[in-house]
Amino acid sequence: MPRYEFRCRTCGDTFELSRPMAESSDPAACPAGHDDTVKLLSAVAVGGSAAAPAPSGGGGGGCCGGGGCG
Question: Quick one: DSSP state of residue 22?
């Protein structure tokens, strides 16, 4: 289940909640009971070996497909 990060505008506390994606935009009360919260955008890092390697230099393609533009 995804985790979403929120910040309370009343007390400034930052907290996380696990909830289904279908409920990601639902309001959330902070642990202190305040209702004035905002969902924060989080950067997610995805790693692993399944990603394609970046092309190396050499026989490039560019706009001409490697045939020389001029």
Answer: G
CB 34 within 8 A of CB 51: no
Give the whole-angstrom CA distance, residue 65 versus residue 53: 20
Contact 64, 40 (CB under 8 A): no
Q: Does residue 15 contact residue 4 with C-beta atoms inside 8 Å? A: no
Amino acid at 13: D
Q: What is the pTM of this model?
A: 0.58
Instruction: Categorise residue 5: left if φ over 0, alpha if ψ from -120 to 50, beta otherwise.
Output: beta
Stretch 27-31: mean pLDDT: 95
Cα gap 48→1, rounded to integer Å: 20
